[in-house]
Structures are given as structure tokens and as C-alpha cells.
Design goal:
Blueprint lengths: L1 E6 L10 H10 L6 E6 L4 E7 L5 H10 L5 E4 L4 E4 L17
Antiparallel strand pairs: 1-3, 1-4, 2-3, 4-5
Length: 99
Amino acid sequence: MATINVGLARPAGGTISIGRVLSALNKVKHPARAFKIEHSATEPTLVVRVDTMPTDAVLMRLSVLCEQEAVAAYNGKRGALVGPKAHKWGTFNLEFFIR
């Protein structure tokens, strides 16, 4: 199992729907097994459980499909922060990851 964090605030303003995130997860072949909404320090975040840890390429595609600068994933051993503007956020930091 792995957990993915997808922020719901769009960088340009507004929000993305939970349905859009769930649809994007299906498109990248990592359907949600469970999900909840939590609030990070900066925005509402969809916290999603999936069967396996996505590759960085899959996370990049998910980030683009969800119009996010980056998405984060963690499987208990490996963490990743990937997206077109992930460099703005630095490297994956478990301290900021919502489980």
C-alpha cells in the first residue's frame, strides 16, 4: 500500500474537485482504495490510499492531470515529491506528509 497527497487548491486560484483527482488516479492505473480530506498547513488535501507506490513518471502525470505543481507519495519506505514545479517545494519531507 501507498498513500498519495494531492492538494485541492489550484495554483492559479480556485480548487479542483475530488472527482477529478479520483478520475486522474484511474487514468494512471492507481485507483483509490480509500480517501479522506485533511487540511495541510496551506490547503485542503486529498489523502488517498492506493495498492502500490507509483513511479515518479506516474506521479508526474497525476500532477499534470490534477493541475498541481507537485504531488507527494509515501509507502512506508520511500517518499517522493514529483511534479512540474516540485523544485519550488524542495525534496520529499515526511514531516509535511499527511498519512
